[in-house]
């Protein structure tokens, strides 16, 4: 893939039958947040947001915690292949991921990547947190 969208992990396919993405793919990671909210909403009377699901999981609610771990494993599966192919030192997870997602990603990498690649990679949250897009735009504007 060249041009727009190249090297963007947001366009890794995690759902074979997912929604069509502007990149031309289907079921890209970029659409996963809304799917997460939809999948858990029926269990709660309050209207949920992705941020609220993270807060519920952090407070020890087992449903959202499990959902976020499952999501991490889904994302981690294609990342495991990338680790096997490229042997990176780290997988840096941007945005509001939380520990459940990071643990799920690490579990999938350990299970599916070649053992030497899995042992060599660390899975860490981004130091920029939810502000990566904004900081990138500022850096680009300054150039």
TrEMBL record:
Q: Superkingdom, according to UniProt?
A: Bacteria
Residue spans crossing the bilayer: none
Give the protein family: Belongs to the ROK (NagC/XylR) family.
**What's the protein called, per UniProt?**
ROK family protein
What is the species of this protein?
Paractinoplanes aksuensis
């Amino acid at each position: 893939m060249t041009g727009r969208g190249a090297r963007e992990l947001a366009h890794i396919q995690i759902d074979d039958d997912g929604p069509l993405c502007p990149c031309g793919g289907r079921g890209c990671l970029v659409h996963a947040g809304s799917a997460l909210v939809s999948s858990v909403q029926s269990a709660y009377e309050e209207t949920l947001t992705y941020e609220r699901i993270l807060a519920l999981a952090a407070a020890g609610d087992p449903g959202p915690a499990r959902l976020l771990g499952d999501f991490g494993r889904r994302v981690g599966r294609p990342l495991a292949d990338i680790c096997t192919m490229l042997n990176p030192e780290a997988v840096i997870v941007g945005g509001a991921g939380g520990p459940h997602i990071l643990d799920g990603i690490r579990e999938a990498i350990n299970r599916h990547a070649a053992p030497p690649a899995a042992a060599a990679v660390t899975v860490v949250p981004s130091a920029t947190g939810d502000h990566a897009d904004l900081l990138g735009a500022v850096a680009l504007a300054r150039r």
